[in-house]
């Protein structure tokens, strides 16, 4: 028992919870992505999606510093640094602001139809065929 005592004390874990809201109207945001990264070892991270009430909870966390990244489609990402020091931690609501996303221009190109069948008549599109400017009708 005395041999396992120091390991049991060092093995204590804590939880971190909070909620995500819209900064404009304070409504909860279900489905927001929350990523928790251990700052001492960035290969250790956890991810969650907020529940129907916009709440997230991470459990089994050791003492240390963590970085939280909250994202939601159409909103600006928010990053926070949190220290877990011997107790469970409840964060203030994380408020996300709407963001503007500009997409690049898209050009849609379609090939011209060479011909079209209308009932019993075939209609040819002369512009769909490449010909030289000095070509004769036979060419």
Summarize the topology.
Elements: H1 5-10, E1 14-22, E2 33-38, E3 45-49, E4 55-61, E5 64-71, E6 78-84, E7 89-90, E8 94-96, E9 115-118, E10 121-124
Can you characterise this structure?
The chain has 139 residues and is mainly beta. It has one helix spanning 5-10; strands at 14-22, 33-38, 45-49, 55-61, 64-71, 78-84, 89-90, 94-96, 115-118, 121-124. The strands form three sheets. Strands 1, 4, 7 and 8 form a four-stranded mixed sheet that branches. A hairpin with a 6-residue loop joins β5 (64-71) and β6. The protein is rod-shaped. It starts with a helix and ends in a 15-residue tail after the last strand. 11% of the residues are buried. The model is unreliable at 1-5 (pLDDT under 50).
Query: What is the CA–CA distance across the termini?
Result: 99 Å
Number of strands: 10
β-strand amount: 35-45%
Tally of helical runs: 1
Order of helices and strands: HEEEEEEEEEE
Structural class: mainly beta
Shape: rod-shaped
Sheet of most strands: 4 strands, mixed
Q: What share of the residues lie within helices? A: under 10%
**Mind telling me the C-alpha Rg?**
30 Å
Low-confidence stretches: 1-5
Mean pLDDT: 86
